[in-house]
Write a structure and sequence with these properties.
The protein is built from nine helices and twelve strands. By secondary structure, the protein is of the alpha/beta class. Strand 7, helix 7 and strand 8 form a beta-alpha-beta unit. The chain starts with 5 loop residues before the first strand and ends with a helix.
């Protein structure tokens, strides 16, 4: 199946197992280790499709004999864990039985002219991952996460992103001042202020700022915006979930660009 070295591990006290557990369960461990844990075949296939070479491919003992060859043949090293050990490490209710450890990409430089999504203290990992997925789907190639936003490469964000990470330029822990380097219009959205989005001819490329789940976009970001729009809500709800709002805004820009 593969020429990579294969190691079988049964002990919870193994150093690799301890590091892997941190990657799987600690949202910021990847920053210390410089590696990312991708659990499950969907994320692994998405990584392979983008040409990533896994540093380590990890399999549960029962899955290893039947694992498809493509999951192992590109890995530099292969680890086979006892089933109970893999389940203990896994961040899923139903462990996926396989995963990759990949090198954390080097921090990219800001692309001034790129269609961009700005995340201003968006804290829920599921929301962040969903927004990354919408960004990739609607042609926004760059995501700029300001300080206070959920860690972009955290396991929960990766799972919610469903592979979107591998096609995006991702910048973390940025200060609002970095927005000054953008050369595309910055747009903010609100449920109560600005012109209705469906009545606008939106610029392309542009940058959309999506704010904190409770507080919205902060003043430092709002002050840099060239336009404010609102999403009409005839049903009368106070506000939309930020990931839902992002999908609406990014789709509106995408169809304006056609």
């Amino acid at each position: 199946m593969t020429s990579a070295p294969i190691t079988h591990i049964q002990s919870r006290d193994n150093a690799f197992v301890k590091d892997l557990r941190r990657l799987a369960q600690d949202s910021t461990a990847y920053r210390k280790q410089g590696r990312v844990w991708l659990e499950g075949d969907h994320l692994c296939r998405a990584a392979l499709a983008r040409g990533l070479v896994p540093a380590v491919a990890v399999f549960s003992e029962s899955f290893w004999p039947q694992a498809p060859a493509q999951y192992a043949q590109t890995a530099i090293k292969i680890i086979v864990l006892a089933d109970a050990l893999f389940a203990d490490i896994s961040g899923l209710e139903s462990p996926a039985q396989m995963g990759y450890v990949v090198e954390l990409p080097a921090p990219p430089a800001l692309l001034p002219d790129a269609a961009t999504v700005v995340l201003d203290r968006v804290q829920d990992a599921g929301n962040v991952g969903s927004i990354l997925r919408s960004a990739a789907a609607f042609g926004f190639g760059q995501v700029l996460a300001l300080k206070g936003t959920a860690a972009l490469w955290a396991p929960k964000v990766l799972r919610a992103g469903m592979g979107a990470h591998f096609g995006l330029c991702l910048i973390e822990s940025a200060e609002p001042a970095l927005l000054d380097a953008l050369q595309v219009p910055l747009i903010v959205t609100s449920s109560h202020q600005g012109d209705l989005i469906q009545q606008q001819r939106l610029p392309w490329p542009c940058a959309w700022a999506m704010g904190h789940e409770g507080q919205g976009v902060g003043q430092a970001v709002a002050a840099r915006a060239q336009r404010a729009v609102r999403i009409g809500q005839p049903g009368g709800e106070e506000s939309l979930n930020v990931a839902a709002a992002a999908a609406i805004c990014l789709h509106a820009s995408a169809i304006s660009a056609v």
